[in-house]
Amino acid sequence: MASTNELKSRTRGDYPYLLEYRTRWADNDMYDHMNNSIYNFLFDSVINTYLIEHCGLDPPTSAQHPLMAHTHSDYFSAISFPKVAELCLRVNKLGKSSVTYEVGLFEKNIDGVKAVGKFVHVFVDRATLRPNIKGMNDALRKGLEKLVVPGISSKL
C-alpha cells in the first residue's frame, strides 16, 4: 500500500489510461468545490468506461460483471466547475477474480494530483453473483493486464 506522500507525488505518467471529464455546475457543493460524492462517481465511471471499451464488458448482458468490494479516497486539493478533470487509471493488483484499481484525478494543464482513489472489484457470474471458480474471463483479464504497472505486486 502506497503512503500518502507516494500518492501525493503521482503524475499522469504513473497511469496507462486517461479519460477527460468536463466538470458541471451541479458538481460543485456549497463550499464552491466538487463534492466528494462526485469524485467516487468519476472513479467508478473511468473504471467502467475502460471495462466497456477495452475488456469486452457489456453491462446488460455480460456473463461476468464487477461488484464493488472496497473503495477508498485520498483528497489533496480541490477542483471545481468549470475545470476539466483528467481521470487516470492503473491496476495495482490483479487476482484470479478480483482487481485493485488506482485512479488519479488531475486538473487539465495543472501538475499535481488532486485526489487518488482505490477501488476493488470482484468479478462474479451474473446468475449466481459468486466468483467463477476459473476466475475472470480471458477478455477481462487481457484488458486489465494492460493497466498493470510494472513493479507493482500482481498475481497473474
Automatic annotation (TrEMBL):
Signal peptide (from-to):
none
Q: Which InterPro entries match?
A: 4-hydroxybenzoyl-CoA_TE (IPR050563), HotDog_dom_sf (IPR029069)
Q: Which Gene3D superfamilies match?
A: Hotdog Thioesterase
Which UniProt keyword terms apply here? Hydrolase
Question: Per UniProt, what is one GO molecular function of this protein?
Answer: fatty acyl-CoA hydrolase activity
- Which family does the record claim for this protein? Belongs to the 4-hydroxybenzoyl-CoA thioesterase family.
Protein name, entry field: HotDog domain-containing protein
**Native species of this protein?**
Pseudomassariella vexata
